[in-house]
Design brief:
- The structure is a single chain.
- The protein has 11 helices and no strands.
- Helix content is 59%, strand content 0%.
- 0% of the residues are buried.
Length: 289
């Protein structure tokens, strides 16, 4: 057969299959499924339950444990919380099972010389444990970061309020000063109590900011603090180093050490020797040796 004949047969077969599928779909759509009737046979179900019940058997033959506390999940999508609940439930079941085994005298501890390979290796379980710990740490870090963001927002809000309050106070003070200047120019001050503006002196500002000392010495300079005074009394004071030879107003006006007779010297009245003895020359001094 030629290629054209093969292609013709394939197309005929495809058309027949398509026609059969369409007929099957039409027949399924025409069929109506009978409605199922659900009957609650309580008597039969109770009989079956009584038949499979094992209440007459002791626990060592049944080995079933029912959890006393149901699992309550706040968020079903939280994998870590769900795994922890299952772990707690399993741990409670193991502890209760050990008590029942001890009651019936059934040994359950592994002998010292017993070796059995676990289903999952220790390294695999260690990875699972580490993954759970990492998830828990990630949740804690996310909560801590959220708290820090909220605190930063609150702190920024407080800071902005403080800055705005200072700007308002500054603006109010400048407005009062401007009003006072205008009244000073016009000569009408009115009631001075309306402008309650306190101008702090330098000493007050230093005392408020913690700099300087109100207690001043005779020279007008601030006294050192108590700690410095105690150290000066204990170790002494080295004294002033710079400017010790500089004149002051008191030293320049002090004439008690001045003596006119002692100070009348050649430097003031000129030289008294008219003929000064000169030193002989080098050659003459060598000849005299």
């Amino acid at each position: 057969m030629s290629d054209n004949e093969y292609a013709y047969e394939d197309s005929v077969l495809e058309d027949e299959e398509t026609a059969l599928e369409m007929a099957a779909l039409d027949s399924d759509s025409m069929m109506v499924e009978p409605k199922k009737e659900f009957i609650n046979h309580k008597t039969a179900l109770s009989a079956l339950l009584e038949e499979i019940s094992q209440k007459e058997l002791q626990w060592n033959h049944r080995c079933d444990i029912t959890s006393l506390t149901p699992i309550v999940l706040e968020k079903a999508d939280n994998d870590l919380d769900r795994e922890l609940k299952f772990y707690q439930q399993g741990l409670d079941a193991v502890l209760r099972g050990k008590q029942e085994l001890v009651k019936f005298g059934i040994p359950f501890e592994r002998p010292v010389d017993y070796f059995a390979e676990m289903v999952k290796s220790d390294s695999h379980m260690a990875r699972i444990r580490q993954k759970l710990l990492d998830q828990q740490q990630g949740i804690q870090n996310a909560e801590e970061a959220k708290k820090q963001r909220e605190l930063r927002k609150y702190g920024k809000k407080i800071q902005q309020e403080k800055i705005k309050e200072r700007e308002d106070q500054k603006k109010a003070s400048l407005d009062k000063i401007t009003t006072i200047k205008k009244r000073l120019r016009s000569g009408d001050l009115g009631d001075a109590d309306d402008f309650e503006i306190d101008i702090d002196s330098d000493d007050d500002r230093k005392s408020k900011t913690g700099y300087g000392n109100k207690t001043k010495a005779k020279g007008g300079k601030p006294m050192p603090n108590k700690r410095r005074q105690v150290k000066n009394e204990k170790f002494g004071f080295g004294g002033k180093k710079r400017g010790m030879k500089n004149n002051t107003a008191d030293s320049a006006a002090d004439m008690s050490g001045f003596n006119a007779g002692r100070n009348k010297s050649s430097s003031f009245s000129g030289s008294t020797n008219k003929f000064k003895v000169q030193r002989p020359g080098k050659a003459k001094r060598q000849r005299t040796r």
